[in-house]
Design goal:
The protein is built from 15 helices and eleven strands. By secondary structure, it is an alpha/beta fold. The strands form two sheets. Strands 3-2-4-7-1-8-11-10-9 form a nine-stranded mixed beta sheet, sandwiched between helices. Strands 5-6 form a two-stranded antiparallel sheet. The longest helix has 17 residues.
């Protein structure tokens, strides 16, 4: 059954290594752009969805000039899982007539002192038992995951590089992407190691910025200026392990919750992997793309590294992935800029980066032990 909800408007700020604005100011800027893109006024927004660590919704509503906050919700997921999974809350609110137009927003400033590393310093177990030995921080965690994958299935530098190079090729076709310099596989192989086997281009960018989108009823969206991106399916999945444990204590180092969330999303949409024309996959590090490609059903476990070879995910490839450059080359706005890109692909407005006949797209957002998958389509 076709969903009754759609994304009607999207907006994003400038993305840069450092922006002298607060997260709240960035969120408001992105929200205003998304509302205008939907052809609405702030007074039309009566629902708000956010996630832990984001600006308070009452402040967002007041600064926007929204006069009726009839629905407010916060996901229990963080980062990419929240940006994608928030679509479920927005859809539930609209289908149950709790709100007419729901704003989802996400802002981040990795330029703040400590950047993403500061997050782990608040975990006493990591501070006491891991940090003194140098075992902390995302590059180290994901390097260990990559080495485990290599041990189990085989993994070459060239396969990791295929992901990074494809992301850069897409970013060079995307105005506003942070990383625009040309990068060949030889350039990639000459880049310095951060944590073996991960080189600098294997690691996501450090970004300040925000993105937002407006969800409304599909019937209403059809009367708005831009073609609606129909929310065909949403799935949420989790592993039975905590955020503190998953990077260093997981019994299955290669497992992700993407398999669970993807199965729910496909079932919800009545679609299957073969129906997907492009994918926007949470790419904090290149090994994350390999594992999610497998768990999203595009290939079997252990085949993800070979799947990304030979330009398959690059422009002109069989499964275009992260068509704006992703977190590796566009910006690290966890999962949120992936949703914005998917909507623009479905509208057919991406110029040199447009995927031909882009009718169905999948967006995958990961937050360690949690994962969200959304399947969006044109209004077919």
């Amino acid at each position: 059954m076709l969903s009754a909800t759609a994304i009607a408007g999207v907006g994003e700020t400038q993305y840069a290594r450092r922006i002298d604005s607060s997260v709240l100011e960035l969120v408001i800027q992105a929200a205003r752009l998304a509302i205008a893109d939907a052809g609405l006024d702030p007074q039309d927004i009566d629902g708000f969805v956010t996630s832990p660590g984001q600006p308070a919704l009452d402040e967002v509503a007041v600064m926007l000039g929204a006069t009726n906050r009839s629905f407010s919700a916060q996901t229990t997921f963080v980062a990419g899982g929240a940006s994608v999974g928030g679509l479920q809350l927005a859809r539930l609110a609209i289908e149950n007539k709790l709100a007419r137009n729901v704003l989802i927003s996400y802002g981040i400033k990795t330029s703040r002192p400590g950047g993403p590393y500061a997050y782990h310093e608040t975990d006493s177990r990591k501070a006491d038992l891991e940090m003194p030995f140098g075992f902390y921080g995302q590059p180290v965690y994901f390097a260990a995951i990559a080495n485990r994958y290599k041990h189990e299935y085989g993994l070459t530098f060239e396969q990791l590089g295929a992901i990074a190079v494809a992301a850069r090729q897409w970013a060079r076709r995307t105005p506003g992407a942070q990383a625009q310099d040309e990068m060949t596989i030889d350039d990639y192989l000459a880049a310095p190691f951060i944590a073996n086997p991960l080189r600098k281009p294997d690691c996501c960018l450090m970004s300040d910025g925000a993105a937002a989108y407006v969800v409304t009823a599909l019937d209403a969206a059809r009367d708005l200026p831009n073609p609606p991106a129909v929310i065909r399916g949403v799935g949420l999945g989790s592993l039975p392990i905590t955020m503190s444990e998953i990077f260093t204590q997981s019994p299955d180092y290669l497992a992700t919750p993407a398999k669970k969330s993807a199965e729910m999303a496909y079932d919800d949409a009545g679609l299957k992997p073969d129906d997907v024309d492009f994918a926007e996959i949470y790419d904090c590090f290149t090994p994350s793309v390999i594992r999610q490609i497998e768990d999203l059903g595009f290939c079997d476990r252990g085949e993800g590294a070979s799947f990304v070879d030979e330009g398959r995910i690059a422009p002109g490839g069989a499964l275009p992935v992260n068509t704006h450059g992703g977190h590796l080359s566009h910006a690290y706005i966890p999962g949120a800029n992936h949703v914005v890109e998917a909507v623009r692909q479905l509208r057919g407005t991406r110029g040199d980066a447009q995927v031909p006949d882009a009718n169905v797209g999948i967006v995958a957002g990961m937050s360690a032990s949690d994962h969200a998958t959304a399947i969006l389509s044109r209004d077919l």
